[in-house]
Design brief:
heterodimer, A: 306 residues, six-stranded mixed beta sheet, four-stranded antiparallel beta sheet, 10 helices, 34% helix, elongated, B: 242 residues, alpha/beta, Rossmann fold
């Protein structure tokens, strides 16, 4: 596997705000790589640096063998970039937008139609509609077509699924898996922790720093504590109670469960179950579970901010 | 939750835009102090329905009462009894924290003395006294959202509408935000919330799922999972909305 993007010691600040604080990262060719983090983690800043739209304060980035600062013109030709905010021409039609981007990159729609065919088929019925009049999901698909029309080597997607419903999100990830088969390196940012498992590897970003880089399985396997799921009728009261419990290390709501870690290295889950049952006068079940990416993210972020 | 008291009553609500039926015969009740999840795919008609319930748009037909007021004839009275917050619309970025509180308090006609008292109380509860005179634009997103939620409650509304309140925030802050939601519900405020996070759907007392303008399912998360033979709310949602 050869490296597509090599990021070395990147720093970037806006006035007093440190947006990126010593970021180093290698992304492989043809990899579907996820940048996972909340708003303010630094995802967009990193994308803008990769897209040659911003200069780093320190550090360097190589993409497909070119330096993003010195060879920005080369980079722009081999890059497809879909920013977080819809950035096509709202008053041009769907077809006009696609033609425009093809022309800018000195190519024709027909030349790379195979790459976008599946997505294009879904928006083609609306090809004469103004881009501004499309629904959210359609806009997103058009933007993806425009970012791919010159068959880039690297595709950067900044939060393509934010604010998108669960069905459209799952469709979008299927599209990404298909695009990946063309050997395109895909870097995708998302605040949805569950989407991390769909990537080959992920970097967990928090407040401008990398918490961890690994495969999704790798991230999960480094979780160091024994994790328990607790279920019962009144989750909220149980959470309030556990926050005051002397042995609680962490307790977080996860849907209809609480995820709990204990301060003690070893403890009897029956005893905890009994304690909760007595205190709340309801049935409680405590069972051991495997952590997910979100458990790991929160544990790492708490550890870092200690 | 007080299942005796209905704070939202909707019967056969329709909203048409020309030939397009955005809300197609919606009927449901929401109880006092309930956390009611209002889910649906993008374009399913959620925003249209919320605008009607907030008194911002007239339904085409149907009988609808919110906080005891009729959505056709008593819209101004209704608006005094509800709060609204979304990620897209909340506080003014170029006003300070206190200025925002004063502004919203003023809009709802609270006397300045009361606004001051409430501001002090609110900032203390959120542990944000230190940023009282900081402009909103300079605060982290998570703080802004907690503040926006509390400000939306400043006039002590009976119902608060939350339209995707937690988009983009980190998992810890997102959970802290839900603490505030639970607290408000415990004190008797009714929560009407939309979200794309399916784990958050499970925190709701009941959930409705809209598909193409209709409510296709409405029940507790447990019952819905049973009904659709699904492990999680995400599975329920995918089954209905796909």
């Amino acid at each position: 596997m050869s490296t597509s993007i090599n990021i070395k010691g990147i720093f970037k600040s806006y006035d007093s705000v440190k947006a990126l604080n010593d970021i180093s990262l290698d992304i492989n060719q043809g990899e579907l790589f996820g940048l996972i983090g909340a708003d303010g983690a630094g995802k967009t800043t990193l994308f803008r640096l990769l897209a040659t739209l911003l200069l780093p304060d320190a550090g360097s980035i190589d993409m497909e063998g070119y330096d993003v600062v010195n060879s920005y013109k080369k980079i722009r030709n081999l890059l497809g970039y879909m920013p977080g905010r819809f950035s096509l021409y709202q008053d041009l039609s769907v077809m006009e937008n696609l033609n425009f981007f093809a022309t800018v990159f000195n190519t024709k729609i027909e030349e790379n139609i195979d790459l976008i065919e599946d997505i294009w088929k879904q928006i083609e019925p609306f090809k004469d509609r103004k881009a501004g009049k499309l629904s959210g999901g359609m806009k997103q698909k058009l933007a993806l077509c425009c970012a791919l029309i010159h068959k880039p080597k690297v595709l950067l997607l900044d939060e393509p699924t934010t604010g998108v419903d669960a069905v459209s999100r799952s469709e979008f990830w299927q599209i990404l898996k298909k695009i990946q088969q063309y050997g395109i390196t895909i870097v995708v940012a998302t605040p949805y922790m569950d989407e991390a498992t769909l990537c080959d590897r992920v970097a967990l970003l928090d407040k401008g720093a990398i918490l961890q880089v690994d495969t999704p399985q790798g991230v999960v396997s480094t979780y160091r504590k024994a994790l328990y799921a607790i279920t019962g009728a009144n989750i909220y009261d149980m959470m309030l109670l556990l926050r005051k419990y002397e042995f609680t290390e962490s307790v977080f709501a996860f849907g209809q469960e609480l995820h709990y870690t204990d301060k003690r290295d070893e403890f009897d889950t029956n005893q905890l179950q009994h304690y909760l049952k007595e205190a709340l006068q309801q049935d409680v079940l405590v069972r051991s579970i495997n952590p997910n990416i979100e458990d790991c993210f929160m544990a790492l972020s708490i550890q870092k901010n200690k | 939750m007080d299942q005796e008291t209905k704070v939202i009553k909707v019967r056969n609500m329709y909203k048409k835009f020309g030939d397009f039926i955005a809300n197609d015969d919606l009927s449901f009740d929401v109880f006092k102090g309930e956390i009611f999840g209002f889910l649906g795919a993008n374009g399913a008609g959620k925003t249209t329905a919320i605008r009607i319930l907030c008194g911002l748009s007239y339904p085409t037909s149907g009988e609808i009462e919110v906080a005891g007021f009729n959505v056709y004839k008593q819209r101004e009275l209704l608006k005094r009894k509800i709060g609204y917050m979304s990620q897209k619309f909340s506080l003014y970025e170029d006003l300070t924290v206190y200025e925002n509180i004063r502004f919203y308090g003023g809009i709802y006609g609270l006397p300045l003395k009361e606004i001051k008292r409430k501001a002090t109380d609110l900032l203390q509860r959120l542990n944000l006294e230190a940023v009282r005179d900081t402009r909103i634009g300079e605060l982290p997103l998570g703080w802004k959202q907690k503040l926006a939620f509390s400000v939306a409650l400043i006039h002590e509304p009976e119902i608060i509408f939350l339209d995707e309140p937690t988009g983009g925030v980190d998992p810890i802050t997102r959970r802290q935000f839900w603490d505030l939601i639970y607290e408000a519900a415990k004190s008797g405020v009714t929560i009407f919330v939309t979200t794309h996070y399916m784990d958050e759907a499970e925190y709701c007392d009941r959930i409705s799922i809209m598909v193409d303008g209709k409510i296709e399912a409405l029940d507790t998360p447990d019952h819905l999972k049973e009904q659709f033979n699904a492990e999680t709310m995400n599975d329920v949602f995918l089954r209905l909305a796909r």
